[in-house]
Design goal:
It contains six helices and seven strands; from the N terminus they run αβαβαβαβαβαββ. It is of the alpha/beta class. It is globular.
Protein backbone atom coordinates (compact mmCIF):
# COMPACT_ATOMS: atom_id res chain seq x y z
CA UNK A 1 0.00 0.00 0.00
CA UNK A 2 1.33 3.44 -0.88
CA UNK A 3 1.47 5.70 2.17
CA UNK A 4 0.29 9.30 2.20
CA UNK A 5 2.82 12.07 2.71
CA UNK A 6 2.31 12.66 6.44
CA UNK A 7 1.95 8.95 7.16
CA UNK A 8 5.17 8.20 5.27
CA UNK A 9 7.07 11.02 6.99
CA UNK A 10 6.10 9.51 10.35
CA UNK A 11 7.07 6.04 9.15
CA UNK A 12 10.56 7.27 8.21
CA UNK A 13 10.98 9.03 11.55
CA UNK A 14 9.77 5.95 13.40
CA UNK A 15 12.36 3.78 11.68
CA UNK A 16 15.30 6.08 12.51
CA UNK A 17 14.48 7.57 15.92
CA UNK A 18 14.82 5.63 19.18
CA UNK A 19 13.68 6.03 22.77
CA UNK A 20 16.00 8.48 24.52
CA UNK A 21 16.91 10.42 21.38
CA UNK A 22 16.83 14.17 21.01
CA UNK A 23 14.73 15.30 18.04
CA UNK A 24 13.75 18.58 16.44
CA UNK A 25 10.38 19.71 15.14
CA UNK A 26 11.73 22.57 13.07
CA UNK A 27 8.28 24.00 12.26
CA UNK A 28 5.85 23.30 15.10
CA UNK A 29 2.79 24.55 13.26
CA UNK A 30 -0.22 23.13 15.08
CA UNK A 31 1.80 20.63 17.11
CA UNK A 32 0.85 17.34 15.47
CA UNK A 33 4.44 16.31 14.66
CA UNK A 34 5.65 17.53 18.05
CA UNK A 35 3.18 15.19 19.79
CA UNK A 36 4.18 12.31 17.50
CA UNK A 37 7.90 12.88 18.18
CA UNK A 38 7.34 13.23 21.93
CA UNK A 39 5.68 9.84 22.07
CA UNK A 40 8.37 8.36 19.83
CA UNK A 41 11.35 9.38 22.01
CA UNK A 42 9.59 8.54 25.27
CA UNK A 43 10.24 9.91 28.72
CA UNK A 44 14.02 9.60 28.38
CA UNK A 45 14.12 11.54 25.09
CA UNK A 46 13.50 15.18 24.36
CA UNK A 47 11.81 17.19 21.58
CA UNK A 48 12.82 20.73 20.73
CA UNK A 49 10.13 22.50 18.74
CA UNK A 50 10.69 25.75 16.85
CA UNK A 51 8.38 28.24 15.22
CA UNK A 52 8.50 31.98 14.60
CA UNK A 53 4.77 32.57 15.14
CA UNK A 54 3.05 33.00 18.51
CA UNK A 55 -0.01 31.15 17.21
CA UNK A 56 2.06 28.07 16.32
CA UNK A 57 3.91 28.09 19.64
CA UNK A 58 0.65 28.42 21.57
CA UNK A 59 -1.15 25.75 19.50
CA UNK A 60 1.73 23.33 20.03
CA UNK A 61 1.92 23.93 23.79
CA UNK A 62 -1.83 23.42 24.08
CA UNK A 63 -1.72 20.16 22.11
CA UNK A 64 1.17 18.88 24.26
CA UNK A 65 -0.74 19.78 27.43
CA UNK A 66 -3.85 17.98 26.19
CA UNK A 67 -1.71 14.87 25.68
CA UNK A 68 0.11 15.33 29.02
CA UNK A 69 3.51 15.31 27.33
CA UNK A 70 6.34 16.99 29.20
CA UNK A 71 9.51 15.90 27.39
CA UNK A 72 9.45 18.94 25.10
CA UNK A 73 10.83 22.45 24.88
CA UNK A 74 8.96 24.81 22.56
CA UNK A 75 10.91 27.85 21.37
CA UNK A 76 9.75 30.93 19.50
CA UNK A 77 12.69 31.32 17.15
CA UNK A 78 13.84 30.32 13.69
CA UNK A 79 14.91 26.72 13.22
CA UNK A 80 18.19 28.11 11.87
CA UNK A 81 19.03 29.16 15.45
CA UNK A 82 18.49 25.70 16.98
CA UNK A 83 22.12 25.42 18.08
CA UNK A 84 21.64 28.29 20.56
CA UNK A 85 18.84 26.45 22.38
CA UNK A 86 20.05 22.85 22.72
CA UNK A 87 22.66 21.79 25.26
CA UNK A 88 25.67 19.73 24.16
CA UNK A 89 24.50 16.63 26.05
CA UNK A 90 21.23 16.69 24.11
CA UNK A 91 22.97 17.44 20.77
CA UNK A 92 25.04 14.26 21.09
CA UNK A 93 21.76 12.28 21.03
CA UNK A 94 20.27 14.07 18.01
CA UNK A 95 18.48 11.36 16.05
CA UNK A 96 16.15 13.23 13.74
CA UNK A 97 14.23 16.28 12.66
CA UNK A 98 11.13 17.17 10.69
CA UNK A 99 10.27 20.30 8.72
CA UNK A 100 6.82 21.07 7.33
CA UNK A 101 7.63 23.83 4.88
CA UNK A 102 5.31 26.50 3.60
CA UNK A 103 2.94 28.43 5.87
CA UNK A 104 0.94 27.73 9.01
CA UNK A 105 -2.48 26.35 8.00
CA UNK A 106 -5.27 28.73 8.96
CA UNK A 107 -2.90 31.63 9.47
CA UNK A 108 -1.19 34.45 7.57
CA UNK A 109 -0.11 32.96 4.23
CA UNK A 110 2.52 35.68 3.76
CA UNK A 111 4.58 34.22 6.63
CA UNK A 112 6.39 31.34 4.95
CA UNK A 113 9.49 29.24 5.38
CA UNK A 114 12.47 30.28 3.30
CA UNK A 115 15.17 28.09 1.80
CA UNK A 116 18.00 30.18 3.24
CA UNK A 117 17.08 29.53 6.88
CA UNK A 118 15.91 25.99 6.16
CA UNK A 119 19.18 24.98 4.48
CA UNK A 120 21.19 26.62 7.28
CA UNK A 121 19.19 24.58 9.81
CA UNK A 122 19.59 21.35 7.81
CA UNK A 123 23.37 21.80 7.57
CA UNK A 124 23.65 22.35 11.32
CA UNK A 125 21.39 19.44 12.17
CA UNK A 126 23.26 17.06 9.84
CA UNK A 127 26.60 18.06 11.36
CA UNK A 128 25.38 17.05 14.84
CA UNK A 129 23.17 14.10 13.94
CA UNK A 130 23.93 10.55 15.01
CA UNK A 131 24.72 7.93 12.39
CA UNK A 132 21.52 6.68 10.69
CA UNK A 133 19.62 9.75 11.92
CA UNK A 134 17.14 11.34 9.55
CA UNK A 135 15.91 14.76 8.49
CA UNK A 136 12.46 14.72 6.88
CA UNK A 137 11.28 17.71 4.88
CA UNK A 138 7.61 17.85 3.91
CA UNK A 139 7.71 20.37 1.08
CA UNK A 140 4.49 22.31 0.50
CA UNK A 141 5.20 24.51 -2.50
CA UNK A 142 1.86 25.61 -3.95
CA UNK A 143 2.04 29.13 -2.52
CA UNK A 144 3.80 32.41 -3.30
CA UNK A 145 7.53 31.73 -2.78
CA UNK A 146 7.07 27.98 -2.53
CA UNK A 147 8.45 27.12 -5.95
CA UNK A 148 11.69 28.98 -5.23
CA UNK A 149 12.13 27.16 -1.91
CA UNK A 150 11.40 23.82 -3.58
CA UNK A 151 13.98 24.35 -6.33
CA UNK A 152 16.69 25.48 -3.92
CA UNK A 153 16.08 22.53 -1.61
CA UNK A 154 16.19 20.09 -4.51
CA UNK A 155 19.45 21.64 -5.70
CA UNK A 156 20.95 21.51 -2.18
CA UNK A 157 19.94 17.90 -1.48
CA UNK A 158 21.12 16.65 -4.89
CA UNK A 159 24.60 17.94 -4.04
CA UNK A 160 24.91 16.11 -0.71
CA UNK A 161 27.74 13.56 -0.81
CA UNK A 162 26.26 10.11 -1.47
CA UNK A 163 29.02 8.54 0.63
CA UNK A 164 27.76 10.47 3.67
CA UNK A 165 24.01 10.71 3.05
CA UNK A 166 21.12 8.87 1.48
CA UNK A 167 18.61 11.32 -0.01
CA UNK A 168 15.06 10.25 -0.90
CA UNK A 169 12.39 12.13 -2.82
CA UNK A 170 8.87 10.74 -2.30
CA UNK A 171 5.69 12.15 -3.74
CA UNK A 172 2.65 11.68 -5.90
CA UNK A 173 3.14 12.77 -9.50
CA UNK A 174 -0.46 12.46 -10.72
CA UNK A 175 -2.14 14.77 -8.18
CA UNK A 176 -3.30 18.28 -9.04
CA UNK A 177 -2.61 21.59 -7.29
CA UNK A 178 1.09 21.21 -6.46
CA UNK A 179 0.91 18.26 -4.04
CA UNK A 180 3.45 18.23 -1.21
CA UNK A 181 6.35 15.80 -1.36
CA UNK A 182 9.04 14.50 0.98
CA UNK A 183 12.77 15.00 0.89
CA UNK A 184 14.43 12.71 3.45
CA UNK A 185 18.14 12.83 4.30
CA UNK A 186 19.66 9.94 6.26
CA UNK A 187 23.18 10.19 7.67
CA UNK A 188 25.09 7.09 6.63
CA UNK A 189 27.46 4.97 8.72
Amino acid sequence: MIRGIINYSHYLLGEAIHKGDTVIDATCGNGHDTVFLSKLVGETGHVFGFDIQDKAVNNTKERLSENQLTNTTIIKDSHSNFIHHISVDKLTRLGGAIFNLGYLPGSDKSIITRSESTILAIEGILSHMKQNGIVVLVVYHGHQGGEKEKEQLLRYTRLLDQKQFHVLCYGFINQKNDPPFILAIQKRN
